[in-house]
Amino acid sequence: MVFNLVVNIIGIVVFIAIAYLFSKQKHAINWRSVGVMLVLEVLLAWFLTGSQIGVDAVKAAADGFTWLVNVSYDGIAFALASWVNVKSMDFVTSSLLPILLIVPLFDILTYIGVLPWIIKWVGRGLAYITGQPKFESFFVVEMMFLGNTEALAVSQLQLKQMKAQRNLTIAMMSMSCVTASILGAYIKMMPGQFILTAVPMNVLNAAIIAAILNPVDVKPEEDTIAKISGSAAVEETTETTETSGSEELAHEQVKEAKPAREPFFSFLGDSILGAGRLILIIAANVIAFVALAKLIDKLLGLINSNLSLENIFGVIMFPFAWLLGFNPSDAFQMASYMGTKLVTNEFVVMGEVTSKINDYAPHFRAVLTVFLTSFANFSTIGMIIGAFKGIVSREKNDLISRNVGYMLLSGILVSLLSAGVVGLFVW
């Protein structure tokens, strides 16, 4: 165990070194801010996995999500009793249909202003502690609750005003989030304690990796913060000691852009329909990716009976998996799961391991769960570029499109760093 722990620590250093190696402006990296975030992250990982208070808090939160999911089964059973009242529910019923309750619930919290208030003050607190720009700090917290495309949508006025290089930072951060409303589905398949631990870890690591890969000098007059109000998205500049004429104009434009508040039941109906579309999107992606993976395995088998996607991914990702503190055989298995997740999505791997996750050693279970808890995969790149295309100018969108490799690298490094730091405290 001591040797594996040392390797795990070395792995964390290596992941940060890789980010530095590919940094666009090595001389501009704010190492003080990066160091503060790393210390904060290690303390948070210890608190959530190594202290009794933190473990109990995460367990209580996981139990809360489980309770919500169980409540949702009452609604599902009313319409589809034969899907619920069975010995073992299928993936769609057990994990996806509860989204019909959880998504509207989070949207209601947004509508009444609870989530916007939490996001604003947590984002400001993170900016104050870490020294990162206010909007970037706000955005990573926003993603923790809303997801990547939703967070981009409610921040669109500010994204239009920011310079292209900062838009690229936001795009890179967008690779490493999960939507709070989908956590119930994850918790039905993987250990809830590590699912909920991964969420704040990804927030910090998205800021760390972006600050190293793409450091941007943000002047005081550019340091703005977003504010969402109910179902309406608006942007406001933060208060400064001096206000320029352009800032006053931007503020007036924001006031004019604020739409009327949508009636509650119209808002709720749209939320429910959106949840239904999300279920269909996830189900379609899982079915298609699993089928495509099986087809590729069949074709590879025609070349060599031992050739498969799992083995290919195992070879490619093996060094990174080994650096997470595993012996060679476990590292190869972990690497195959990691590669499959990146090429397909987290649901494909979760569905494969859910029946045996509790049979794995604690370290393997924690590292795998944390690594899987993000949207970092190839399909997410398309979603993010599509979202930016509908928001910013062509010039800004072209810069993001030219840096797809950086977006994918950012997502992978954030997942590795989160898994590595959590793995330090779970053996």
What do you see in this structure?
The chain is mainly alpha-helical. It has one domain (1-226, 264-424). Helix content is 73%, strand content 2%. It contains 22 helices and two strands. The chain has a two-stranded antiparallel ribbon with strand order 1-2. A hairpin with a 2-residue loop joins β1 and β2 (232-236). α11 packs across α22. It is globular and about 60 Å long. It is a multi-pass membrane protein. Residues 195-423 form the Concentrative nucleoside transporter C-terminal domain. Pfam families: Gate, Nucleos_tra2_C, Nucleos_tra2_N. It comes from Lactiplantibacillus pentosus. Keywords: Cell membrane, Membrane, Transmembrane, Transmembrane helix.
What's the quick description here?
With 427 residues, this protein is mainly alpha-helical.
Characteristics of this structure?
22 helices; two-stranded antiparallel sheet; 427 residues; mainly alpha
- Structural class category: mainly alpha
Q: Report the mean per-residue pLDDT as an integer.
A: 83
> How many individual domains?
1
Q: Determine the N-to-C terminus distance.
A: 8 Å
Number of helices: 22
Radius of gyration: 21 Å
E-strand count: 2
Shape: globular
Largest sheet: 2 strands, antiparallel
Strand order in the sheet with the most strands: 1-2
